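User: What would this chain look like folded?
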Amino acid sequence: MGLCSVCQKAVCRECFGRDTPRLVCRTCVQRRAILGFEYRSAIVIGGWPLIHVCAGVDPVTMRPRVAKGIIAVGNVAIGGLAIAGVACGLVTVGGVSIGLALALGGAALGLGLSVGGLAVGSVAVGGAAIGFIHAVGGVALGPSISDGRRCDPHPVDFVRRWLGSGIVPLNCR
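Assistant: Here's the prediction, encoded as structure tokens.
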């Protein structure tokens, strides 16, 4: 019928893995040959592995592997602590970061503290910050802001208390 898209061996009609969207031999389907890396810890909490680390694509579906775990690390990660290019969870670090408590990233979106180039959250700190309570950044939008034009005392006090006394917007000194 053709060549297996994973191992590049010839595939006959009897060896064809029928449950795949691509031409993959039955051997590769059974052993789930990988393009990339994957590790799952043996410890499972609430159905999720304690640690799940993965990268690359699934050769059968050709979709990116998604790390799902209490601690998840990968190109795409979902978990309690998620570290990835695209991260979603309770505490997240990534290029695009969506976190409930804390989001750190190029674009950070969260309900709690968000820190990033573009930060949106209850408290947002970043180049462009949109905060529902406080916003600190080059451009800031919110009820209590500190940016290049204005310096409210509340976000400055918050930043001093949580991020250190030496970190204060220049126009607030």
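The CA atoms of residues 30 and 55 lie 20 Å apart. If you want, I can go into more detail on any region.
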